[in-house]
Amino acid sequence: MIDARDWKEIAGDDYDWRVTAKPERPYIHDYTKTMTMKMFLAEPDGRGGSRVFIDIDKAADIIRRVDRMTMGAPKILYLVGWQYNGHDDRYPAWHEGNPAIKRAEDRTPIESIRWLMEEGSRHHTTVSVHINMYDAYENSPLWNTYVEKGLLNTTTDGKPDKAGVWNGLQAYSINYGREWETGFAKKRIDEILELLPLERAGTVHIDAFHCRPDMGRGQGYEDSQAARRKIFRYWRDRGIDVTSEFLYDEPVFGYEKPGPDQLIGLQPMAWHFSQKLSDYIDRPAGLICGGSAGHRGKPGGEKLGALFGENIVGEPLWADWKNRTFRSGWEGHFLEDFCLKYLPFRFLNGLHRLSAACTPGEITAKLSKNVTTMLNGPVILQGGEKLREGNDVLLPADWISKKTLITYSKDGGTRTWTLPRPLKGASSASVQDLTTEGPGKETIRRVSGSRMTFPYLPGQAYIVTARD
Known about the structure:
By secondary structure, this protein is of the alpha+beta class. The protein is about 25% helix and about 30% strand.
């Protein structure tokens, strides 16, 4: 839904999330309960073509298989390398799909991507795209426009400001303020919304949304950050959440003293989630949550996902980076991540974070509903009974039913669990193998004193549902 205000009226002010501990506006999706993953489709091959990891047909097959394995759990999947010849190609342009990934029966790759978005919705999967608003390349069809209109950051000598080197090509950083004020940021966004039904998806992933000063024009980090907030708010006016790569804390006061996180309350999810222990307590998961905890040496977060949950990121499950190809045999690894990452993530995000304490050799967190988590193990306790110990879990699968749990063991063996609510007190339960092809044969087992024993092969999971 488009907000009624004119885009020029959108403010760039910081949002003080500390007043309410809630987002500025409700997010479109509930990221605390959703598997939020990327899928790497293709990259430029360095010879003018595309190296394909996953085409649209294979992506659809993976979506269907993942949905069977997760029994309809909510999922968001961002397509990486959908445009031009693949990942990081031709930015800032988003005008064309990658012909190497399209289905044979479709006329254009955009038709194939639209088809996949529709197909995903049939399998509890919101399909969207991964884009970039920071980089500009000389081989982009928009390069001359962005140079002539002065839409790039500049160095003190007035030359375009260099960013990273990707696919062997130099990238240059975009001046968010000038792109916004001239209407080109809105134009870029509006054009991709004409190309793809992202308003229906309600989410988009913007990679590497860093801020940079424009030294040649005397503009600082604050100018770039204010414009970035306007861009976030415009996407949200169009009914679309922006997730991004990091929690951004550009050095407003110089590199020795980073500034505050400028997007808390606007950005619902960060891919690489480097929060400190105190941040987890201060910021509810519904305000900001994330994928992998800790990234690239950033302080905090490296192991704290075990205490508060971290999500499946998906991308490395399907992409063999070393050999630059699709990773076959991904199914068992996905089942492991589903059980050891998503299940704790969903369960722990549904609780209030009360406190955390560091003692020699241990970090412990206290959450609502009498839940305690401990880093070493890791361990999840509820009322003193274990729901996780190391690589063994027994956790709710409440999207299936309020009476359903999933149990899993990475290493195998035999384990007796005390069943938590809602299975506590049940006299019998339905037990199904959960395989990489989905639920298997059902058996009915008696429950003795709210306890059940399970024999596990390595990597085995069961679906357990109370019958009375």
